[in-house]
Amino acid sequence: MTLWRTINTGLAAVILIIGVSTAVWAGSTRQDLAQDSTLETIQKKQTLRVGFSTFKPWAMKDKNGEFIGFEIDVAKRLAEDMGVKIRFIPTKWDGIIPALLTGKFDIIIGGMGITPKRNLKVNFSDPYEFTGMSIIASKSAAPDKSSLEGFNNPDTKVSVRLGTTAEKAAQNFLPKANLLKFSDEAASIQELLNGKVACLIASAPLPETLAQKYPQKLYLPLKGDFTKEPIGFAVRKGDPDFLNYLNNWIKVTNSEGWLEARFNYWFKSNQWESLVE
């Protein structure tokens, strides 16, 4: 009995030591994660660096050369609630994720659709908005079409923005069409206005805005969007603190109705159009 009592006592001591060590290690790991969080870095530097690309009305330049748009409002409110300054870093869309991963900025706020492929490289917040893909067509190059099927053939040229979910939507819904991919939104629109492509696929409300601006040249073949996709903030992997803050920020601003109000201003009204050329 004495031997077994000694063995049991020793085992208990070992288990206790392991348990304490594990708790200390876990606590230390949590502290290290918190200290390494982008959130802590932003607080220390007192600046939120935002990566984005220009898409009307998500982000664009006004007549004075200043950036305005839905995502600009979102980014400014986020920085304000964090109590820090904001620095906008315009970046080409097809290189925006690599730029985030190399630390060029802290977060992507640019109407980025949440997709499994992107999620392999970055972490996404909860959706803070939803958008859909729409189609705008040329009256001269593709007159009187009223369905996606009418554009799904090898003779049809379709303009899309390179690296966007519009490109993916075109591949899924118009697999037989000839896709022309542009890194610049203005170039993809100009190709449509020149009648060199039959249609342009882009996220709402750009197609509707173009149809209103150029009624003699363009028209909307469909009554509404043909996809629906969630939009989220993109951050580097391994940063639960920053992701937690962003998700809670989304919940709070949604509960206030602030996000919906800004979305309605930029996407469901034309009050801002006089601000841009």
TrEMBL record:
Membrane topology: Multi-pass membrane protein
Family to which the UniProt record says this protein belongs: Belongs to the bacterial solute-binding protein 3 family.
Solute-binding protein family 3/N-terminal domain span: 47-270
Protein name per Swiss-Prot or TrEMBL: Amino acid ABC transporter substrate-binding protein, PAAT family
Subcellular location: Cell envelope; Membrane
Predominant subcellular localization, coarse grouping: other
Biological source species: Desulfovibrio gilichinskyi
GO molecular function: ligand-gated monoatomic ion channel activity
SMART domains: Lig_chan-Glu_bd, PBPb, PBPe
Ionotropic glutamate receptor C-terminal domain residues: 49-269
PANTHER family: GLUTAMINE-BINDING PERIPLASMIC PROTEIN, MEMBRANE-BOUND LYTIC MUREIN TRANSGLYCOSYLASE F
Keywords from the UniProt entry: Glycoprotein, Ion channel, Ion transport, Ligand-gated ion channel, Membrane, Receptor, Signal, Transmembrane, Transmembrane helix, Transport
Family matches, as SUPFAM superfamilies: Periplasmic binding protein-like II (SSF53850)
GO (cellular component) term, any one: membrane
Residues annotated as domain Ionotropic glutamate receptor L-glutamate and glycine-binding: 57-102
InterPro entries named in the record: Glu/Gly-bd, Iontro_rcpt_C, SBP_3_CS, Solute-binding_3/MltF_N
Entries under PROSITE patterns matching the protein: SBP_BACTERIAL_3
